[in-house]
Amino acid sequence: MSTILQAISLRKNFGGVVALDDLSFEVRAGEIKSIIGPNGAGKTTLFNIISGIYRPSSGRVRFEGKDVALLPPHVIARKGISRTFQNLQLFANMTVLENVMVGRHPRTRVGFWRSIVRFPGVRREERLTARAAKELLDLVGLADNAHRAAATLPFGKQRLAEIARALATEPKLLLLDEPASGLNVRETEQAGRLIQKIRDMGKTVLVVEHDMSLVMGISEEVLVLDHGRRIAEGPPREVQKHPEVLRVYLGEDFHNAASAES
Amino acid sequence: MSKKNLIGLIVLIAFLLVIPRFFGNPYYLGVLVWSGLYSLICMGLSLFMGYCGQISLGQAGFYALGAYGSGILTARFGFEPWPALAVALVACVILALGVGLPTLRLKGHYLAMATLGFGVIIYVVADADPFGLTGGPSGFSGIPKLSVFGLALNDELRWYYFVWATVLIFLFFLLNLVNSRVGRALRSIHGGETAAKAMGVNVAKYKTQAFLLSAAMASVAGSFYAHYVGFVNPEPFNLELSIHLVTMVVIGGVTNLWGAIAGTVLLTVLTEGFRTFFKEYRLLFDGLILVVIMLLFAEGLFLGAAKKVAALVARASCLRSRRRPGASTHSTGNPEAAS
Amino acid sequence: MDPSTILQYTFAGIKIGGIYAMVALGFNIIYNTTGIINFAQGEFVMLGGMFMVTFSRIMPLGAAFPIAVLAVVIVGCFLERATIWPARNGSVISLIMITIGGSLLLKGLAMKVWGKSSFPLRHFSSEEPIKILEATIQPQTLWIISVLLLVVIVLALFFKFTLTGKAMRACAANRPAASLCGISVDRLVLLSFALSAGIGAVAGIVITPVTLVNYTCGSMYALKGFAAAVLGGLGISTGAVVGGLTIGLMECYGAALPFQGASSYKDGIALLVLLIFLCAKPSGIFGRAAISELKRF
Predict the structure, then answer these.
(1) Facing residue for B209 by CB, picked from A85, A112, A169
(2) Does residue A1 carry a pLDDT above 70?
(3) Same structural domain, B30 and B68
(4) What local confidence, expressed as pLDDT, does residue C290 receive?
(5) Average pLDDT taken over every residue of chain B
(6) A75: distance to nearest CA of chain B, Å?
(7) What residue of C is the nearest CA neighbor of A12?
């Protein structure tokens, strides 16, 4: 499988705080890769850099072989990276359907003057946009909620709507920032199946997640971060046994006890 | 165009045609001409504030640029009114670009202050009489009348039709705009800039476009002003006007073009109708409106009040039929709180 | 231009610049705790002058001064509780509009209470100009400079040594974190309004003998004070003082430029500086862009 995303020696500091510290990793096209790590490990910062919201202090991000780290976010979205947000950022002033339609933005073309005069071509594009958005709502199971105000959706459904919106940009790489946080067990399972379905549509998915059952269940690869550094990387089973990971997650003592036992 | 907007437009047109039959008196028509001029500015401002979530406190400056541009070019340099309007418009848009391009990349307050400063600079310059062009504080007159298709706009009725026809045309275009891909992009900026960017929306570009459009509309209104009054002086274009324009948009609900027009007409008619009252209390009135609406009716007086009343009625009926406990769960949450 | 004239303009620039510096300090205090630009800041200056004029009619200046400041502080607190506090979770645009509304309310009330005329205030000490190197300086200018110095020193001590001051600095650096440490952000916001209303009032009181006061004079102080704050870097105290003095000096030198009607553009200079800085270096002379990246607005 070819590499779709490559992070090379990424570093990001905010003032004196180092959020990412010389981080390098690769994502292969068509896989589900999860990033785990304790709070403050730099996971969300990493997403913000990949999606262009932050600029790295140094280092590079290569997407399909091209440098994207210094591009503005809307250009990165057009190139095929889309994302959801940990702290739900649906447009509260719009309906669910409209939210997803915004996601069609980089794949549609009508500009300022054409929309003012509203030529027939404009209307056709508008219809296609709405249809595409509805299909995505179908996919995530929100078809019945299309015309609800986005802000009134329950938590779990807002997460799904964000996924639909992100998919609407036709990403090759989808970044999901804690897709299961705040969801109950059943919803988490559904989310896992949805993520696999998205992968089966030929997309690459990079997930930041705390829910271990989800991570271990769906990922081909897991990357473990701590204090902005990579401490382990590999298939879920290997990572689970990695001594550094045990130490970070379960504390020093447990690690010592575990190694004494073995 | 959605059915609702289409019906709205038809009703508005019918209304505008009927009004002169009942209020044919030039004084009333004059008030409506002013309402129309302000509506032009406020529609642009509403697009920028309500759809883009930005704020401009310099619209009086753009309005002044249009007025002075048209006035100076026609009265002092012998331009025909329409080319003069075009030149003033282009100059205004270029200046707006100069102010907007750098500041629109910054956060909300900076743009507000930059536009505020810009408006005051325009005022100061007009007042200072550069090269004897603006006539200083006392202004200058001799601005010719405007004619449309060979028809001179020489009475209030013609001005009334002309200004409101322009308002309708702009309203039609703007309604198209806000219900399109671009309109959605603008609203997404209001909804959350980060998410909008991540969805591929070029936030800076759209903000700039909306800002330029609002400046252009203010400039056109200013040009009309110059020809309508035939005289221009700095006094009307002060900081208070910029804030008053924001108040008009806010009272009607920032996120609604119809509201902008309704709020503008309402405030203009009120100000005229209770002239002596507003002479003393305009500041307090505007201040109170801004604070109260922002605190209580984020959607504007009309929609906000309607929802509050509906909620009250529902609660009252709920109390009456006590057998259905908890039947009413009204969300009175501020939609902006999440942004 | 001969040196004594230049010195004369310098004194004039420092005088008015000191006022802008105090207004800028007021902006900064509120900006640091809340992230809001308080558009009503100029009204505090105006109210300071107004209250002082009123109280000075019935008591000596020395007594009227603190009472006038206190009165404006109370107004500031009231403004915060009545308008800012209920909207504390609102969007940027609604907060901007609320402070604009607040400024209109204060202005409108001042007009109802004091009318539309301008009021003089007697100078704090003699009006006899003091001669320094061929130029003269009004004693009131010395008052303004000393008051500015005093305000700066007191603020510096307050932020450095008192617990509340440190809490306010923590709040400026990182509001959520400060709140997690048990700092009551709510109270600090109120305090910051009180503090900046007080500083505004002081500025208004010391400048009124020189310029008169009427209900509309606040907006210009606010705009120029904001220009000063941006010039020095929003939120930075040193920047506010340097920015204020710079703008005051530029205005006075600018008015003396040798072309006809130069003085009529005086009021535009500060705003031009503001626009230029917003365009070229919005973080100001002393500011670092990285910090403003983390601010809410």
Answers:
(1) A112
(2) no
(3) yes
(4) 44
(5) 87
(6) 6
(7) C290
Give me the residue spans of the domains in chain C.
Answer: 7-218
Q: What interface predicted TM-score (ipTM) does this complex get? A: 0.90
Nearest to B118 by CA among B60, B40, B186: B60
Per-residue pLDDT tens digits for C242-280: 999 999 999 999 888 877 777 788 888 888 888 888 878
B142 with B96, same domain?
yes
Considering CB atoms only, which of C83, C264, C278 is closest to B102? Answer: C278
Confirm whether B288 is domain-assigned. no
Question: What letters, b where the CB count within 10 A reaches 16 and e where it falls short, cover C7-21?
Answer: bbbbbbbbbbbbbbb
For testing contact with chain B, the best of A53, A91, A153, A170 (most B CBs within 10 A) = A91
Between B24 and C54, the higher pLDDT residue: C54
What is the predicted pLDDT for the residue at A259? 54
CB-CB neighbours of A261 under 10 Å? 6
Instruction: Give the up-direction half-sphere exposure of residue B14: CA atoms within 13 A in the CB hemisphere.
Output: 6
Same domain, B170 and B212: yes
- Give the gap in angstroms from C-alpha C90 to the nearest C-alpha of chain B: 5
pLDDT above 90 (res C182): no
CA-nearest residue to B204 within chain A is A74
Nearest-Cα distance to chain C for A54, in Å, is 10
Output the domain CATH number for residue B186.
Answer: 1.10.3470
Closest residue in C to B136 (Cα–Cα): C264
State whether A122 and B180 contact (CB < 8 Å). yes
pLDDT in tens, B243-282: 999 999 988 888 889 999 999 999 999 988 888 888 888 8
Report the residue of chain A nearest C173, measured CA to CA.
Answer: A15
Domains (ranges, CATH) in chain A? 3-261 (3.40.50.300)
Assess contact for A178 and A167: CB atoms under 8 A: no
pLDDT for residue A152 is more than 70: yes
B317 and B169 together in one domain: no
pLDDT in tens, C46-101: 999 999 999 999 999 999 999 999 999 999 999 999 998 888 777 777 888 899 99
CA pseudo-torsion sign A15, A18, A24, A25: negative
* Residue B247 CA to its chain's centroid (Å): 9
**Chain C window 252-291: which residues touch A at a Cβ cutoff of 8 Å?**
290-291
Would you state the structure tokens that stand for residue A227, as one six-digit string? 């204090």
Cα dihedral C109, C114, C115, C118 sign = negative
Give the nearest partner residue to B290 out of C86, C101, C268, using CB atoms. Answer: C101
Residues from chain A that touch C172, judged by Cβ atoms under 8 A, are none
Q: Is A73 an 8 Å CB contact of chain B?
A: yes
- Asked whether residue B316 falls in the same domain as residue B187, the answer is no
Q: Quote the CA–CA distance of A229 and A21 in Å, as a whole number.
A: 5
Cβ pair C98:B282 closer than 8 A: no
